[in-house]
Amino acid sequence: MASHILTPKAHEDIVGIQRFLMLNAPHAEETVAEAIVDACDRLGQSPGLGHKREDLAPAKFRFYRVFSYLIVYIHATRPVQIVRVIHSARDVRSELKRGGAR
Predict the structure, then answer these.
(1) pLDDT digits (tens, 9 = 90+) for 56-98
(2) Residues 35-49: tens digit of each pLDDT
(3) How many CA atoms within 13 Å lie on the side-chain side of 43?
(4) Helices (runs of H) and strands (runs of E) counted in the chain
(5) What are the chain's domains?
(6) Residue 99 and residue 79: Cα distance in Å, rounded?
(7) How confident is the model at residue 14 (pLDDT cuts 50, 70, 90)?
(8) C-alpha angle 28-31-32 in degrees, rounded to nearest 5
(9) How far, in Å, CA of 10 to CA of 29, rounded?
(10) Do 73 and 96 touch, CB atoms closer than 8 A?
């Protein structure tokens, strides 16, 4: 059984990040993509690695930073559910609402 699952929106986020980086920073695309995938695997094995951000989302969500990106996940589910992967410069609260994470 997988240690984590990606919601459709999280998958869409990762694909969007890869596309953006391929166009704007091709030298970083593989490194960032691998780091995000590795972090999702680590979170599946050790869900307590992330932290709460009740200023951004309800307490059921945890946040884990990879480079400039925040992996938003639900730590209490098995497998761990990766909800979104959002650049930290964005309005994270609005992105979560728009993406259905509440």
Answers:
(1) 999 999 999 999 999 999 999 999 999 999 999 999 999 998 8
(2) 999 999 999 999 999
(3) 30
(4) 3, 4
(5) 4-98 (3.30.2310.20)
(6) 20
(7) very high
(8) 80
(9) 17
(10) no
pTM of structure: 0.94
Residue type, 7: T
pLDDT at 87: 97
Q: Are residues 29 and 48 in contact, defined by beta-carbon separation less than 8 angstroms?
A: no
Token pair of 73 as six digits: 């996940």
- Do residues 66 and 31 lie in contact, with contact meaning Cβ atoms separated by under 8 Å? no
Query: Does the structure show a pLDDT above 80 at 100?
Result: no
Nearest to 101 by CA among 83, 81, 82, 77: 83
* Phi-psi region at 48: left, alpha or beta (left = phi > 0; alpha = psi -120 to 50): alpha
